[in-house]
Write a structure and sequence with these properties.
By secondary structure, the chain is an alpha/beta fold. The chain contains 24 helices and 23 strands. α8 packs across α9 and α11 crosses α12. It is elongated, with a radius of gyration of 34 Å.
């Protein structure tokens, strides 16, 4: 029996009524680093860290007087201390027996260090970002929910913020992902260095962070956001200080959205959605701005939520349709057309694509709408083929579509279903999409290019892409963004940019398309400079299908650039 007890993984000790150790098995040496003989006649408190060591006699005396204890007969986790003064967590099971009229306590002790370490590692993986070591979004959501509940009880409120690093993808693209990770660490260190103790920084995803005020402020008749605005300004200033990346100096700008939780009365998920909405709006206007969410932003957010809800209903009730905008060559002949998605909502009437498409792209709805556009384009090409006409149509492809593992296979299936040639589809990808995940996009582009599909880079000149990547990608067309076209005949600044894009396209041996052409002067200038195709209201607005069909001519449609 003694051999069995000594070979257990648990330490077993017996102590008397005043805490003196009467016996100990051999396992105590493995756990506490004391030989059993060294513990006999010593007080059990020597194995306890403070304050348990000092309080032990008091607890034991109280139990002997009252018969009440929180530990007898109940397993409990407690800290213990080894001979070398290192603390460790133990699991203690304590029972009481009577021997010769005296109380004897039997303690079974298990070292649970490995179990606790494993639990800590699991917690770290679940709730902390592995790049910056900051708490992650999961922990942010958990603590936000807890603080919202607390503020409701204590009649207090708090600010939360989202910080988005402007054009962060450019760093990964220009340098490397390792450089991007380094920058994320530097960002977190710089922000943490200026934060008050009660405000905590969290890593969200990619290039965004959260701030959460862990000391809710008392509600006042009028909340004064000045101090939080000052904090936002300090964050912008500290990140604007130049950062060395691969011996190059780089200055960061950020977009920040903050909201006083009590002012909007939203659930935790909707608060995050509100901040994401405001950040998206800031970035669409150029970024590098800090904003406290007010009534206008809340109205805009609610409108977005309504639009998204109505879009789901609109898809189900077939409220979406396409228009086509022709693209003309120098002889003003139609060579191709772009397929444009439109929505006539039963509730809102005609909703502009500038409003509903960004909302769709921030949700899964873009997948359904994108598939609808592709099918409509293939159907139109097939119908023209049946009439003896050859046409090429451009369709916009979103990041979410390209990220789908089955996107390429699904696209090929639709093309085969309508029995058209892949080269009759020009897939338009924005520069922003291109740099969002360059390796994935590159892989998809080559896969589809090998099957015969064509690619156009839309809004070229606005997304900060590297020219080296353009050389590596299977690109057939560059579209000059309308932003550079608007004032081409009056703005000295835009002229060299437009000229450069045309020259880049010529160097890459790809077609150039200028969109947003509204005047003869713009048309003449671009054609003179060598732009291949023109798209815009000067020659044709986007057309409903019936009007577009009127313009189709077999002779014209076989024309080339």
């Amino acid at each position: 029996m003694a051999s069995l007890i000594n070979n257990l993984n648990d330490a077993i000790l017996t102590i008397d009524e005043v805490g003196v150790i009467l016996s100990a098995n051999d396992t105590v040496e493995k756990i506490f680093q004391y030989k059993p003989a060294e513990l006999i006649n010593k007080n059990i408190s020597m194995l306890m860290p403070e304050p348990y060591r000092t309080m032990h006699h008091k607890y034991l005396s109280a139990y002997l007087q009252t018969g009440k204890a929180k530990i007898i007969g109940i397993g409990r986790e407690l800290p213990a201390i080894r001979r070398n003064e290192t603390q460790f967590p133990m699991e203690l099971s304590l029972s009481e027996v009577t021997r010769n009229g005296k109380r004897i306590f039997i303690g079974i002790i298990r070292d649970i260090s490995e179990r606790k370490d494993a639990a800590t590692q699991i917690y770290q993986l679940a709730y902390y970002d592995q790049i910056t070591q900051l708490p992650n979004r999961q922990l942010f959501e958990k603590e936000l929910l807890k603080l919202i509940s607390k503020s409701n009880i204590t009649d207090s409120s708090m600010y939360i913020s989202m910080i988005d690093i402007d054009r962060f993808s450019q760093i990964n693209l220009t340098f490397s992902k390792a450089a991007g990770d380094y920058v994320l660490n530097m960002i977190s260190q710089r922000i943490n260095a200026i934060l008050p103790e009660h405000i905590k920084l969290y890593r969200n995803t990619a290039d965004t962070f959260f701030l959460l005020n862990h000391s809710p402020i008392l509600k006042l008749p009028l909340q004064n956001p000045v101090s939080f605005e000052q904090l936002q300004l300090k964050i912008q200033q500290t990140l604007a200080d130049k950062l060395a990346i691969n011996e190059q100096y780089y200055s960061l700008t950020v977009s920040i959205a903050s909201v006083l939780v009590d002012s909007v009365h939203l659930s935790s998920p909707k608060l995050i959605s509100l901040l994401e909405h405001v950040i998206s709006d800031i970035k669409n206007k150029g970024g590098n701005k800090a904003q406290i969410v007010g009534e206008n932003e809340l109205i805009s957010f609610n409108r977005k939520a309504e639009i998204e809800s109505e879009m789901k209903r609109g898809i189900k009730h077939q409220e979406f349709y396409i228009q086509l905008q022709p693209q003309f060559n120098a002889q003003q002949q139609i060579v191709a057309s772009e397929v444009l998605l439109r929505w006539r909502s039963q509730k809102f009437g005609q909703v502009g694509p500038d409003e509903f498409i960004p909302i769709a792209e921030n949700s899964a709805l873009i997948l359904q709408l994108g598939q609808f556009v592709i099918k409509q384009a293939c159907k139109t090409i097939a119908e023209q083929k049946a009439l003896g006409n050859t046409c090429r149509l451009s369709v916009n492809i979103s990041t979410k579509q390209l990220a789908q593992t089955n996107f390429c296979a699904d696209l090929i299936n639709v093309v085969n279903e309508w029995q058209i040639e892949p080269c009759q589809l020009m897939l338009e990808i924005t520069e922003t999409t291109l740099i969002s995940d360059i390796e994935l996009i590159k892989q998809r582009m080559y896969e589809l290019s090998n099957d015969g599909f064509l690619f156009s880079i839309d809004d070229f000149g606005t997304g900060y892409s590297s020219l080296s990547y353009l050389k590596e990608l299977p690109i057939n067309e560059l579209k000059i963004d309308r932003y550079f076209i608007n004032e081409i005949t009056s703005s000295v600044e835009n002229v060299p940019i437009v000229n450069a894009v045309i020259q880049i396209a010529q160097a890459l041996n790809v077609t150039t398309v200028a969109e947003g052409i509204e005047t003869k002067q713009q048309f003449d200038y671009l054609i003179t400079k060598g732009c291949n195709l023109i798209q815009g209201y000067y020659l044709s607005k986007p057309l409903d299908m019936d009007d577009w069909l009127v313009l189709q001519d077999p002779v014209v449609l076989t024309g080339s650039t």
